[in-house]
Write a sequence for this structure.
């Protein structure tokens, strides 16, 4: 199909080639001619994400000092300083059925582990917005599946029947899901092609060149940025496949100790974790940018696992560190790990803020809420709760907002749903209502 026959380009415009179909991001060329002449932009669609950080955080070094826009960021949150004005730390949130390692169950529903669950906020949003996108929602996690029945829950998404929705943890599988043909035969063929370094972008290169010549400067910049993001993901995946295909060396370990029984860091160390974490955030950004979905849930860290980073001086598992016994070294290592995760969160915000979307950026039109099922000491309150983005949707950020003590976490989800245009009928979970201080 020749995409150049669309005047103006349709919002659902694709580049095609070699069995690949690549959705374009929003471009000015998709506006009616009269609208372009008036320099108008279409109303940006709202997006949301719910993110779970298992086992809480070191809350003694999490909350900012003071309240309001000028609050001084804590050590853990310092990486977010460049995005001051685009996030709010919420102190006072509580998960009544949380605390302990079953907190992932009530995280999105306020319903305790072992009880019949109900639909989660992301799926309420997906019911409304999923009709407009290829994927109603994406469920991502560091652990594939659901983990249902165990404390290591891999998902925070529940359908209308209270059934957990399985999460995907493989970046390549997510990439294929977003950008590869759906049939099993095509998937197998494309997998072989990918290993031969055949690229989605290479497959649509001819179509892309024809399109670029017809676009204005702003659209060319937007398209170049979009292609660059996809190329980065492809190159990272390609590099990991190349290393996977190479046999590992067999060094002489005499005198080096028993490497067979050393507890390996999560993801085999800094390099792989750093690559993996950023890659997952890149994929979420691409999914939002292409309007493949408007709703994402992501279990960034599960309960009872992760957090060993010897290259940063962290030599114990995160769960072990949470049983800190007020040991300064344990508390220090907890803060180090949490800071690593916040560096990745900044990377994610950087990516979204760099992508033009309608009359602002992708970050302006996307609400990202993260928290945990517990605070420090396995408590159900003093949760590490932050809302990022969404200023273009009517979110009013203020760096650090003190809520009333024991404000249900569900009040944050209700606030986000309202800005997604979702009408909540009657009481919402155990929420006391939307957080008025957060909205314009």
């Amino acid at each position: 199909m020749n995409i150049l026959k669309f005047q103006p380009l349709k919002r659902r415009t694709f580049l095609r080639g070699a069995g690949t179909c690549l959705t374009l991001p929003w471009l000015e060329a998709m506006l009616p001619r009269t609208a372009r002449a008036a320099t108008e932009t279409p109303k940006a669609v709202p997006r949301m994400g719910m993110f779970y950080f298992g086992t809480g955080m070191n809350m003694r070094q999490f909350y900012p000092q003071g309240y309001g826009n000028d609050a001084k960021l804590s050590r853990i949150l310092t990486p977010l300083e460049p995005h001051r004005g685009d996030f709010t730390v919420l102190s006072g949130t509580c998960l009544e059925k949380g605390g302990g390692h079953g907190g992932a169950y009530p995280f999105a529903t306020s319903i305790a582990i072992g009880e019949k669950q109900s639909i989660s906020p992301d799926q309420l949003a997906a019911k409304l917005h999923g009709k407009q996108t290829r994927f109603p929602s994406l469920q991502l996690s560091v652990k594939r599946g659901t983990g249902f029945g165990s404390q290591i829950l891999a998902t925070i998404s529940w359908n209308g029947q209270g059934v957990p929705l399985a999460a995907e943890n493989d970046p390549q599988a997510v990439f294929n899901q977003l950008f590869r043909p759906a049939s099993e035969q095509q998937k197998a063929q494309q997998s072989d092609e990918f290993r031969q370094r055949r690229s989605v972008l290479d497959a649509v290169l001819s179509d892309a060149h024809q399109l670029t010549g017809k676009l204005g400067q702003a659209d060319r910049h937007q398209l170049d940025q979009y292609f660059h993001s996809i190329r980065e993901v492809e190159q990272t995946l390609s590099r990991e496949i190349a290393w996977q295909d190479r046999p590992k060396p067999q060094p002489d370990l005499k005198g080096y100790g028993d490497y067979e029984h050393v507890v390996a860091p999560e993801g085999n160390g800094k390099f792989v974790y750093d690559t993996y974490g950023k890659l997952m955030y890149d994929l979420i950004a691409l999914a939002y940018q292409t309007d493949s979905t408007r709703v994402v849930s992501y279990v960034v860290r599960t309960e009872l696992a992760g957090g060993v980073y010897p290259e940063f001086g962290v030599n114990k598992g995160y769960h072990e560190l949470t049983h800190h016994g007020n040991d300064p070294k344990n508390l220090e290592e907890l803060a180090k790990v949490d800071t690593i995760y916040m560096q990745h969160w900044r990377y994610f915000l950087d990516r979204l803020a760099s992508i033009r979307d309608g009359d602002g950026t992708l970050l302006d039109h996307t609400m990202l809420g993260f928290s945990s099922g517990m605070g420090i000491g396995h408590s159900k309150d003093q949760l590490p709760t932050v809302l990022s983005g969404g200023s273009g949707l009517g979110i009013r950020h203020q760096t650090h907002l003190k809520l009333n003590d024991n404000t249900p976490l569900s009040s944050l989800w209700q606030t986000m749903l309202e800005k997604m245009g979702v009408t909540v009928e009657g009481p919402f979970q155990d929420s006391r209502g939307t957080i008025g201080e957060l909205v314009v």
Observations:
- Residues 355 and 361 are 5 Å apart (CA to CA).
- The chain has a mean pLDDT of 82.
